[in-house]
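Model it.
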Amino acid sequence: MAMGDSFTAGAHSGAAATQRWPDALATRLREASPALDYRNLAVTGARSEDVARDQLDAAVRLRPDVVTLVCGANDVLLSVRPDVERYGAALSAMLGRLDRDLPDAAVVTATTPDFAGFLDLHERSRRRVADGLERLAEVTRLVARSHDVVCLEFADHPEAVERANYAGDGYHPSAEGNRRAAAAFCAAIASHFPIAVPETRPKETA
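Modeled.
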């Protein structure tokens, strides 16, 4: 089960649907569990409160074994004064609900890297976005830790801010970004949960 915004929905990535990281993750998991039922509930443009309102009930109702929940970037991008504390409250409420209603599910979230340098913005706006994303990552870590939820550290990962990971808009993941994200989620699930995840195959070369 994938929840979130366009990072997960795959909008504007320039990649085929099969290249979205949740699709690649589901493909890997299906190699070990062919009956896996995969749903991607993510919506382009969703803020954290939109995810909580529009996706959480459906996710709980479908009783998934694995849930990825990544959001918050739009809380920063779509606001002149990002309310990161409000994002933290929404994320905490969602993780609490998932823990309460799906106690056996493997839940994974992630911090958002600072992609502000790739956006076509004036310097003042770029600094605002960068500051907001930094605060967003701090809150995500704290909330995930408080709920004992696995949190992928994209914000502090040096490869996460490589331009090749982003599409032409500088925000949404490119095919390479989707590939790396899928690999990171696969590794996290394999490391933290008793779920079979096949070994990563080497990239094919021409």
